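Ticket #4471: complex job returned nothing on first submit. Input attached below:
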Amino acid sequence: MKHYLTLPDQMEQLMTEEITPELFERLVELAAFAFDPEEAEYLRRELNKQLKAIHQLEAVPLEADVPLASHGVTYTPQTRAALREDVWESCDNPDEILKQAPQVKDGYIIVPDIPHTKLD
Amino acid sequence: MSILEQSAFNIAQKVQHGELSAVEVLEAALERIEAVDGRPGTLDYGELTEEDKAKVHAFLTLTADRARQQADEVDSRVKAGNWVGPLAGVPVTVKDIFCVRDTPSTAASRILANFTAPYTATAVERLEVAGALTLGKVNLDEFTYGSSTESSAFQPSTRNPWNTFRVPGGSSGGSTASVAAGEALLSLGTDTAGSIRQPAAFCGVVGLKPTYGRVSRYGLIAFGSSLDCPGPVARNVRDAALMLSVMAGADRRDSTAAIVPVPDYLESLEQGVKGMRVGLSPDYMRITFPDPRTGDLVQRDLPDEIRDATLHAAEILANQGAEIVEDVPMPNTAYGIPAYFVISRVEAASNLHRYDGVKFGYRTKNDFRDLSEMYRKTRAEGFGLQPKLRILMGMYVSAAQYSEQYYARALRVRSLIRSDFDIAFDPEGAYRVDALLTPTTPTTAFKMADVYGDSVLMQYADQLTVPANHAGVPGISVPGGIASDGLPIGIQFLAPDFAEETLFQLGHTFEQATADADWRQLKPQVLK
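Support reply: We reran it on our side without changes. The output follows.
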């Protein structure tokens, strides 16, 4: 996808198709989704529109020393909470938490078969 | 004056002194809800009727029994001469993105529709300890992903109390509508790009996004963890200050809740604005937005009415002794939304992977062969379009081969947005402003269904509010007038980290100075 940056005259056309149907299918697989064709078309169109807005960031002059900001507010040793002791604490309502799971047996959460390949 | 026309501050005082009972206040609120709210949002809603279109639909879950118990407890403590908190007898609503023990906590999503929280969020717990009456959970955009509340899986979605054919804004639309319609005196919302301030502006109420880390996020269903801020919605600035003073402060359950002392916000409220330097920036007086026809980004000046309301507020503050500093450059404002499209999506995708039909929430009712198919069907059926869009975008822009181009660049632009504020607020710098004054939104509340579905245009509704989320600084929206379309206009103040006091002083001074203005006498349609 880097070639978009080197072909400004074709940028417009390419950007509208940045998420191609094939790339979209790969993302859907990775995200563990499944869509009907109409839904897929809406989502792909919106993704491409959003990317068009995102490409505006390429116009921002970034000096080499501009750091990545994971937060806006700076934390200092005085304002940052210390890590809690790594000690076990009891939970007063484990049953209530387990009750939320769709399938539970003997205090364990049950999942369907995990896809696997048998090795000979 | 009827009970619900009084401020939360006055009601709490009267309840504390036994001049008014919490039960009386609660009954008045329940009566108002019955009169204006209409049917609550549900998953199986059918057709909207004409009656539906004239109601507010703020609520998803009314917890009248919980509130009654709380009211009885407050009244019996007052009777026994025991301590009651600073919010004694004040009815509040809670955006349904907060966990409240034993109540459905849905995030307005089908995927959490059957989830009953086994614990209570810190902010809610602190409100309840302070004597507030929790009326229930109110509607929002699904997982907070929107600016109109229309993307909720639970319909009818909330409508604007000033004109029920307009959106309330979002994502805290249920919160701001419930306060504007007088159903509650206060509401707890969240703001990730403007989700408290934008709907507050649209509904003509006060909404505060505190500094990141001022209020604990424990029990808040996460969206953008580096941006999310719980905050108050109120009818006036004093009530917002009162609510923040109850909720703010460190929390051992949230390591990002900063260890910074909580000042007495109410005490400093009356200090006025004499000598305060208030900045105006040309970069907040124009908007960039995608042309609906071509999708190309175009720049335009703000509508005159919105700009004039902001300049008028500056004039009023100048008359109260503030010094107005013009032409404060905030050159990276226009990049707030593009950077947000990247950062918030990456954080959302990461936070949404937990919903998989295994531990809690929805699991597909259809057949599946194995775990992978169960994941796919559950997520496809459980999530609405907006969460799906965010997950897909978040995965794309953070993928190994693209992250430098997109995610890393957006995080660096975030640094530049922060530095705009640092320069403006620098006490040794060229501008030395105590706060910036800007419009809150580029327009008044738009018509329902007008923008919904266009995920780009919808996001641009937040362009004047999102820079504060990137920077972490606090911002407040206060009503600044009524436009010719009869809808409220919001003005916004932005201040340095943890300077919420400054925001309250400015907002309160403006409120007092405009108390007799004609537009202040106008009431929302549903209250007429």
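The two ends of chain B are 15 Å apart (CA to CA). Closing as resolved unless it happens again.
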